[in-house]
């Protein structure tokens, strides 16, 4: 059974998340943007074994602590899609620009592409490439649990910004309507910031994509 704990980190209140398989005790951290001590403490408190780090995209508030946590835990970094490498290379500059602690650039141990599968213990997650916020943004969908980790593609009542380098508004809308909506109205999504919602609720009421 899939379990998860949302761990907002940094002044950006970015939803890093600890996911684990209740049966095997295997765990992953998604989008460790900062506060590595707190994230490692959460792993210890949950009594699970961290196996990988999964990244939706490489903005500083999502990837700033990835290299640090990976080194401490001795685990690989998985994702995002390779066209986000320019954002990873710029992590030290991003950290300086936004007042974050120093962040290290890295090369992920595994890149992701649309249609890939990720394994967490006995649980399989499907990967969808959802460009628009960044060109290499991906999301993680666990169909049996009806859950999807969407990073900064979609929020409760809003959508991701597209005014950063590599952003594209129409691509973002197409990602939401073409990749997320088919997962089903009852699917709960965990966004990069703010509260959870369902795709059905956003289809009905989100002012940016409602009715699409």
UniProtKB/TrEMBL annotation:
This is Glyoxylase or a related metal-dependent hydrolase, beta-lactamase superfamily II. The keyword Zinc applies. It comes from the Bacteria. One of its GO terms (molecular function) is metal ion binding. Residues 13-193 form the Metallo-beta-lactamase domain. Keywords: Hydrolase, Metal-binding, Zinc. InterPro entries: MBL_Glyoxalase_II, Metallo-B-lactamas, RibonucZ/Hydroxyglut_hydro. SMART domains: Lactamase_B (SM00849). Its cofactor is Zn(2+).
């Amino acid at each position: 059974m899939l379990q998860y704990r949302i761990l907002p980190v940094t002044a950006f209140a970015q939803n890093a998340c600890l996911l684990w398989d209740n049966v095997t005790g295997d765990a992953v951290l998604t989008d460790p943007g900062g506060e590595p001590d707190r994230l490692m403490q959460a792993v210890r408190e949950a009594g699970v074994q961290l196996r990988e780090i999964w990244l939706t995209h490489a903005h500083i508030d999502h990837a700033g602590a990835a290299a640090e946590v990976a080194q401490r835990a001795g685990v690989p970094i998985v994702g995002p899609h390779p066209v986000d490498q320019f954002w990873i290379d710029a992590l030290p500059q991003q950290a300086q620009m936004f007042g974050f602690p120093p962040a290290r650039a890295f090369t992920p141990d595994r890149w992701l592409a649309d249609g890939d599968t990720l394994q967490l213990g006995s649980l399989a997650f499907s990967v969808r490439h959802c460009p628009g916020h960044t060109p290499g943004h991906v999301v993680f969908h666990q169909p049996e649990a009806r859950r999807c980790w969407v990073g900064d593609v979609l929020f409760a009542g809003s959508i991701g910004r597209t005014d950063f380098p590599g952003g594209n508004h129409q691509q973002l809308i197409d990602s939401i309507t073409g990749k997320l909506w088919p997962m089903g109205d009852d699917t709960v999504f965990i966004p990069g910031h703010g509260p959870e919602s369902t795709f059905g609720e956003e289809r009905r009421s989100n002012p940016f994509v409602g009715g699409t």
